[in-house]
Write a structure and sequence with these properties.
Helix content is 24%, strand content 34%. It is α+β, with helices and mostly antiparallel strands. A five-stranded mixed beta sheet has the order 3-2-1-9-4, with helices on one face. Helix 1 (2-24) packs parallel to helix 2 (128-141). The longest helix has 23 residues, at 2-24.
Length: 152
C-alpha cells in the first residue's frame, strides 16, 4: 500500500511540476510541455498515460463488451463532468467523466471487479481513484492539450 501511495504521490507531483512549468513558461521546452496522452488498448484492457512522452500512470480498464464497441481513433476531450448520469443507460452514474466522442467517455465505475475485461456499453471505465486522477490531469493541462488514443 505504501509503495502504491508513494508512486501515486510522485506521479501527481511530477504532473503538477510540469503543469506549473507550462503555466509560467519556465524551461526551454515550456511551449511543448504538458501534453498528456492517454493510450487505451482494447485488446489488453489497459490505459497508460504519458506526460511529455514519459509514463505517468497505468491502469486496468473495461471497454465495450460484445455488441457495444469502444470507438477506436485519436480524440481530444470535448467536455468534463465531475458527476454525470447516462441519459441512454438507465441514469447510470459516470463519475469523473472525460467525454471524448459523442456520448463516449473515460469515467469511474463501481464495478471494479470487471476491470481488465470488456464490460461497458462502449465507454472506457476506470477504478474510481484512477478516474479522479485522470480527470484532474485533464483539468490541469486542459482538454486542448490532452489526447486520447484508442487502439485494438
Amino acid at each position: 500500500m505504501f509503495t502504491i501511495a508513494s508512486a501515486k504521490l510522485i506521479n501527481i507531483a511530477a504532473v503538477a511540476f510540469t503543469g506549473t512549468a507550462l503555466l509560467f513558461g519556465c524551461g526551454s521546452g515550456a511551449a511543448h510541455a504538458g501534453k498528456p496522452v492517454a493510450q487505451v488498448s482494447i485488446s489488453r484492457q489497459r490505459m497508460q498515460v504519458l506526460v511529455d512522452s514519459r509514463p505517468a500512470f497505468a491502469w486496468k480498464v473495461s471497454t465495450g463488451r460484445k455488441g457495444y464497441g469502444t470507438p477506436k481513433g485519436l480524440y481530444r476531450p470535448t467536455r468534463l463532468e465531475e458527476m454525470w448520469h447516462s441519459r441512454k443507460y438507465d441514469n447510470a452514474p459516470m463519475p469523473h467523466a472525460v467525454f471524448f466522442h459523442d456520448g463516449y467517455a473515460v469515467h469511474a465505475t463501481n464495478y471494479v471487479r470487471r476491470l481488465g475485461q470488456p464490460a461497458s456499453h462502449g465507454c472506457v471505465r476506470l477504478h474510481p481513484d484512477a478516474a479522479a486522477d485522470f480527470y484532474q490531469l485533464v483539468e490541469t493541462f486542459g482538454p486542448a492539450n490532452t489526447s486520447i488514443v484508442i487502439t485494438e
